[in-house]
Design a protein that fits this description.
By secondary structure, the protein is mainly α. It has two domains: 46 residues; 217 residues, MetI-like (MetI-like fold), CATH 1.10.3720. The chain has a two-stranded antiparallel ribbon with strand order 1-2. A hairpin with a 2-residue loop joins β1 and β2. α10 packs antiparallel against α11. The protein is flat, with a radius of gyration of 30 Å. 27% of the residues are buried.
Length: 309
């Protein structure tokens, strides 16, 4: 009977908890502290970043589908929601303006200038990184410094050349002038990526009798595909969003690009067609977003310089 009374659980509320409960309490406290730390250091900054990043797209979307009554009367209607969605702004943009042609012109200019920039910057980056000549490192630095020159200074002498060559008011003027700021950046980006490719692979090919062109085409470029895609993404995005050159070199309505056209053609005097403006901005950002989504894996690998040996 004495042993039974000793092993029976105590009914005293002030009795100390069992040893398992003592061990579980610190574990729960540590788990709660870890969750709180993750919430403060990871999830909260990530939520703020997503809010800042996605809010402009959300605002463009709701503004594109709002009727004019809701756009100008925030006292009656909620500014952050659409009460009665309408397609009038999109209809105005697509069927009463030259927006489809502006979109095609912008695509043509962006694709052609990106191709020319990648071609020239690939050859330049490979020569600077692989061919041994005096001052190659300084040449790469000089090319990067050329990228830092603001377009507001370059477009003045470029405008003179465009006029003299008879390219004014033509998409060809943009195709030939955009590489002036695309090639330096792409060259600097590809120099770093070519540096991560083992030089021993090219040495083996040289011993086997391969030429530099064969090495570049058959060995270096297949390994540098992520870097090329990354440079292409940056070039395409910069070409698509460029404003100063497109404003200075293009005058006619039908040859304008999207960034210039939606500002100059949809703003008449002091009247801002906000619905059409936001619809044009939203539709103009879709190709770039799709371009990024298709090649995001290559883009991330190029940033990390991941090359399998």
């Amino acid at each position: 009977m004495t042993e039974a009374r000793m092993t029976a659980p105590s009914d005293d509320p002030n009795a100390p908890p069992p040893s398992d409960a003592k061990a579980a309490a610190p574990a729960e406290a540590l788990a709660w502290e870890s969750r709180s730390r993750r919430m403060v250091t990871i999830y909260l900054p990530l939520a703020c970043f997503l809010l800042i990043l996605l809010f402009p797209f959300y605002w463009m979307t709701i503004t594109a589908f709002k009727p004019n009554a809701e756009l100008y009367d925030y006292k009656t209607y909620n500014p952050f929601w659409v009460g009665s969605p309408t397609l009038d702004h999109i209809y105005l943009l697509l069927f009463k303006t030259d927006y489809p042609r502006w979109l095609l012109t912008t695509m043509l200019v962006a694709v052609c200038s990106t191709f020319l920039s990648l071609l020239a910057s690939t050859l330049a980056a490979y020569a600077i990184q692989r061919l041994r000549f005096t001052g190659s490192q300084y040449v790469g630095l000089a090319i990067y410094l050329a990228y830092l020159v603001p377009p507001s200074i370059l477009f003045i002498p470029l405008a003179t050349m465009v006029y003299q060559l008879g390219l004014f008011d033509s998409p060809l003027a943009l195709i030939l002038t955009y590489p002036t700021f695309l090639i330096p950046f792409c060259t600097w980006l590809l120099i770093g990526y070519f540096k991560s490719i083992p030089f021993e692979l090219e040495e083996c090919a040289l011993i086997d009798g391969a030429t530099r062109v064969q090495i570049l085409w058959q060995i270096t470029l297949p390994l540098a595909v992520p870097g090329l895609i990354s440079a292409g993404i940056f070039s395409f995005t910069l070409s698509w969003n460029e404003f100063i050159y497109a404003l200075a070199f293009i005058q006619s309505t039908e040859n304008k690009t999207v960034p210039v056209a939606i500002l100059t053609e949809l703003v008449t005097g002091d009247v801002y067609q906000w619905g059409a403006l936001m619809a044009g901005s939203l539709l103009g950002s879709v190709p770039v977003a799709l371009f990024y989504s298709f090649f995001v894996d290559y883009y991330v690998s190029s940033l990390t310089g991941a090359v399998k040996e």
